[in-house]
Amino acid sequence: MKIKDIVNRDLVTLTNCEHEPIHIPGKIQPHGFLIGITSEGKIDFCTANISWYVSVNHTEALGKKITDVFGANAEKQIFEYINKDENQDVFPLEIDLLGKFFQISIHKSFDIYVLEAEFQFAGKEKLADVYTQTIQFVTQMNNTTSLKDLCALVAEGTRKITGYDRVMIYRFDEQYNGEVYAENCREDLETFLGLHYPHTDIPAQARELYMRNQLRLIVDVDYMPVPIYTIDDQENKTLDLSLSILRSSSPIHVEYLKNIGVGATLTISLIHNERLWGLIACHHYSSKNISPEMRLAAKLQGQFITSQIDIRQSNDENVNAQQTVLALEQLSGMQFPLLQESIQTIVDAPQLLSICNATGVSVVAKGKIYKNGLVPTDEQIENLIIQFDDKISDKLFTTNKLSDHFNGIGKCSSFAGIIYHPLGNSDYIIWYRPETISEINWAGNPEKAIIKDSTGLHPRNSFEIWKQIIKNQSSLWKQYEINGAVQYAHTLHNQLMMITLSEEEEKYRSQSEILKETNSELENLNWISTHDLQEPLRKIQLFISKMLTEPHVVEMDSIFNSLLRVSKSADRMRTLLDDILKFSRIKYTRENLEKIDLNQTINTVLTEMEETISEYNAIIEYERLPEVHAVNFLMQQLFSNIMQNSLKFASPKRTPHIKITASKEPELVTHSHKIYCHWICFSDNGIGFEQQYAQTIFKVFGRLHNQEEYKGSGVGLALCKKIMQTVGGTIYATGKPGEGTDIKIYFPCDPLDTLL
């Protein structure tokens, strides 16, 4: 029978070190021996150090049955243990082998049962002691609320149970870089708390083994590896030691431990959501081994952490999450007018930032950008949306480092992190977080994890603090913050849809009113053309006919009076035609609106009306007037018509007095169901009118008095109404018979919002 060792002698290079076959080293640590048996009980693998523990060497054991080497009773105990359904991973088999007592851990590697034997520990800790310590720990654990506090408690409890010099809770990030999240160590040792370690310190294949085997021991880093031998009956014969306790470590890892001065280690995997969340790493600065009971107790500590991760993280985030929920409820419960200008009111609400703890937010709606807080410029926002439309389309997108996803953007202190949510119809909402410059303390330069020299590969030997400055990224968005943002984005989408529908409804309603008024105007024009214009024409025709048919009868005085009457009739016709022309030229368009100072307008009008004002000996008072969006010549005509109307209907009992006041306070006008931001009031002390005629006086050719009593075409106030409709405003009159009239004109907050 030919025997060979299965030591893996493949060279590890810089190109394959991340694929080092550490699960099949073909060697073990010497604090125990290993045999591999078939299901028939034949010893197919055996370590060279078996003779250190029992009076048999590996050459004598290989190829023989368990019964032939250790006796029938030992074989019976071993297979009874193997055939048990439970507790194999918890309690090792205690057995007498050739007069010596061992504790044997057994697992199956493909078709081989791997038996790892260690001397039974003298004075071993009893399970009752472990139970007592565990109960005490659970009691203390219930007094902690945060995950960090729990990990600190586990580090302290594990060190008390195991006696290691240093116990660290090591937490991985998304890239498997590690951080010492909690620590408990001897007072004379330098702390590692808060230090970061690159992912290369624990390569991928090592992390995979930690997932499969949750407890790993190195008793003495200065150990001499013991080779495993087998019967040479097939090519490339080996033994998978992934689940082994005695498995020999990678020489690179052993050298790494020596470089940091560690003499022995115990490592316990922390697995959460089927991912390696972290490790409990126990370091001792001399050789150290612990009993299976102690290993079990330490393993339980790890399970306490993993069972509490979700709960403790939820507790850590609960307060902030409640604030997010409260902000979401408050904002969703607010009632906003179904107007375009309400979007800025929404954006200005502090709850919109609180929903996801952002420092800025922008809403793009109907081609306009609304902003609040620390936000990019309009140009940067437009550039963001263009790039998102090209790459992200209509999907939610979140990042705390925008520069990783888009070239040329994100390297700005005001928006390193964003939550981007399209709302449809080319509308968007984007939350922003600024750059958070952070400093990470690495235990050595992470770029120099593996070093190559003339003798081969070596782990880094420098662990001096190496500081890394992180830029161009914000703090991470929590899931509850993202959920809150998504939830409100849907609410905002519905609000924008309702605004659009409301504006469409208002548009059609306004158009209907305009059409109705236009038809009424046409009827009045038709009536005036058949009545008011025909009356002076009949008089002219009558006078001319009389003069032509009876020239010798008509006296000169009569001819003069007739011609005077003809002139007056013609003048009235001209006035009517001029007013009709003015009225027809005012269109329902606001394309030429501009910001004008009404103080200049009133001064111009008063100058033009100077003679008329003097004729009536009128008193005109006015206060400071606002700037509005309007058409200058129309405002002059508006002011002139209103003041001429006041003078025309002045009371003969008192001196005409016109007072002009103004306000910038927003006001809801009930008859138009709109909010206006500026109003100007012309108050006179004239004859006034009955309030029931408040609408009639603004109708074209609408008159409350006959032509003989008060001359005029009846177009003046109708022109005023049409002018205010043109600039998106409205006009209203309040009269008191015998006391006077107030005519109030209202200007919109944003004239562009009132375009039809």
Automatic annotation (TrEMBL):
It catalyses: ATP + protein L-histidine = ADP + protein N-phospho-L-histidine. It comes from Flavobacterium hydrophilum. Keywords: Chromophore, Kinase, Phosphoprotein, Photoreceptor protein, Receptor, Sensory transduction, Transferase. Residues 528-751 form the Histidine kinase domain. The keyword rRNA-binding does not apply. SUPFAM superfamilies: ATPase domain of HSP90 chaperone/DNA topoisomerase II/histidine kinase (SSF55874), GAF domain-like (SSF55781), Homodimeric domain of signal transducing histidine kinase (SSF47384), PYP-like sensor domain (PAS domain) (SSF55785). Gene3D superfamilies: 1.10.287.130, 3.30.450.270, 3.30.450.40, Histidine kinase-like ATPase, C-terminal domain, PAS domain. It holds the Pfam family GAF. This is histidine kinase. InterPro entries: GAF (IPR003018), GAF-like_dom_sf (IPR029016), HATPase_C_sf (IPR036890), HATPase_dom (IPR003594), His_kinase_dom (IPR005467), HisK_dim/P_dom (IPR003661), HisK_dim/P_sf (IPR036097), PAS-like_dom_sf (IPR035965). One of its GO terms (biological process) is regulation of DNA-templated transcription.
